[in-house]
Structure formats: structure tokens, C-alpha cells
Amino acid sequence: MVEMMNTYYPDYDVLDLKEEWDPVTVDVVLKRLGPFPALKFLQDHEEPKLRVIAKHLVYDHRDDIFDWIIHFIDQRLSNELGEYQRKPDTPPEKILVREGLQALDTLSQKLYNQDFLEVGTEEQFEMLSDLQLGKAASIPEWSTVPQQDLFDKLLLLTVSAYYSHPTIWSEMGYGGPAHPRGYYRLELGIRDPWEAERKKEEKNGE
Fold first, then answer.
1. What is the pTM of this model?
2. 114-137 mean pLDDT
3. Domain ranges in the chain?
4. φ, ψ at 161 (rounded to 5°)
5. 39 DSSP 8-state letter
6. Mean pLDDT within 19-36
7. Interacting residues of 75 by C-beta distance below 8 A, sequence separation 6+
8. How far apart are CA 97 and CA 146, in angstroms?
């Protein structure tokens, strides 16, 4: 049984509809459930740090979902395809993430005399918040690792993977890929019969 977070669609499972998808789509989506191959880019000491950061960014704790997120990011960073876009003064994402994760340890050592994973959740949140604002304490690494670009990259990679997991689709009431079935009830407020039906809120005393 898949653990569900608070959702308006507690009885909905998008995978019940997989027979409506084409075989290639089924294969792509089911692979997001694992098991996943060994990491290609991320090193052993980087993976747990990235996992903790990702959990902070999306306020979730389910390791099966974060197994997919780590795999997604690892595949992205090990791929030789170019990035969507990048500022002229921002290093390539492979370098940005690798050196950025190391910079967080340097920052944490400066502030708390401990590596990032060794400090408490509140301290980790504070460092990430400062990073988002570009106001983290001064360390040499920030001369080559733009703080806000690092935060934005970690957020983009995490969120892209998180909202592509079928468990999250189910919790959102998203019906998954529309090909080849398609949508036909496009009017506002009208759903196709195969789409999730939102649970009605219970009235007080009922």
C-alpha cells in the first residue's frame, strides 16, 4: 500500500489507468518506482546530502519518492545533453551542484564547526534560506558558485522529479499522460469520467 499524504483524492491511484497508456509510456512511468541502477555521477558522500536538501525543499519524507528524485538528478547530471539555459557567469550544472554541495559543508563548518549533515534541521533550513536570498555567510566558494543559482538549480531538479512521480500524481488527482486516450470534456469544472473525483469536505458533526 502506497503511503498517501493529505489529499482530496485518497482513493485514487493513477496507475489503475495504465492500461489506457501506450506501452512506451507505461514503461517510462513504472520505471519511476524503482529499483534504480547504481549512481553514475553522484558520489557516496553527495547522495545523502542531496537527499536531505530535497526533503527540505518539498517538505516530504517518503524515501521511495526520494529514491526516484536522486536517480532523476543523477541521470540528469551524468547526461551529456546540454542544459535548458544558463547565465553566462554560472558554471555548468555538473560543476554547480558538485561544488555547491561541497560549499554547504564549508559554510556549515564556518557557522557550526560541523558538516551540513551533522547539524540540526533548523540550522540546515537557515543555511538554505540564506542561500535562496544570496545572503549566506562569506566563504571563498561563493566566488565561483553563485548562491542563488545553486539554490534555484537544486530546487528545479528536485521539483521536476517530485511532480513526475506517480504517487504525487495520484495525490494531486492528475490522470497521467493523456496519450492515446486524450481529453474530451474541456469545459471549466467538467471532468472526464476517468479523472479523479475530489473528495467532498465533511460538514461539522457529520
1. 0.89
2. 97
3. 14-172
4. -75, -45
5. P
6. 94
7. 40
8. 11
